[in-house]
Amino acid sequence: MAKRRVAVLIGSLRKEAFSRRLAEAMRSLQPASLELEFVDIGGLALYNADLETESPPPAWSEFRKKVAACDAVLFVSPEYNRGMPASIKNAIDVASRPYGKAVMAGKPCAVATTSPGALGGFGANHMIRQCVMFMDMPMMQQPELYLGQVDKAIEPGGKVASDATRQLIEKFLARFADWIERNAG
User: Are 109 and 140 in contact, with CB atoms under 8 Å apart?
Assistant: First the structure.
């Protein structure tokens, strides 16, 4: 199996974010066939079609270039107010434009969401899924990854607190690696 580059978009911009902890844990547990690359979305100006000129904002161009160079996309996000954070929605909007040149179009993807509560970001997970359908991104449906009580499951720096959580993440990543192989263009 060829090594596949995966753009990891982390929905929380907070330095010590729980979703960042999960992404760090995933990177430390990635199978040899994947290379998880964090792609920063914090510096992206809010999408505004008026800025879509011959010289779009440099952060947009850099973001698009990094995502285009990857084989797949992994969204790792918290849930804010029963939905996805504005940062993830904005990244999806920037990646989907200009029309006909979406850098994520057709790329296999998966989503993992977190919450210190019990539901593990269920609402955000499904909002992300709905938004990327427009770009015809093959979304991995199973296994789903909603990590509730993430504050106890993953320590700062991405250290996984239990074997059960480690196995959950490893299973998710192994299936995602297979998903990418089946769906990469």
Answer: yes
98 vs 145: CA distance, rounded Å: 31
Q: Kindly tell me the sign of the dihedral angle through the C-alpha atoms of 48, 49, 52, 53.
A: negative
Please name which of 5, 38, 6, 9 lies closest in space to residue 128, comparing C-alpha atoms.
9
Domains of the chain: 4-183 (3.40.50.360)
Nearest to 84 by CA among 47, 114, 42: 114
Cα–Cα distances (Å) from 114 to 75, 139, 161, 185, in that order, read 11, 18, 15, 29
Q: How far apart are CA 141 and CA 36, in angstroms?
A: 19
* CA proximity to 107, closest of 52, 39, 50: 39
Cα 150 to chain center, whole Å?
17
pTM as predicted: 0.96
**pLDDT at residue 117, as a whole number:** 84
Residue numbers in the chain where pLDDT is lower than 50: none
As beta bridge partners, residue 77 has 113
- Please, what is the Cα angle at 104 between 99 and 106, to 5 degrees? 95
For residue 51, the one-letter residue type is L
**Cα 131 from chain centroid?**
13
185's tokens: 């263009």
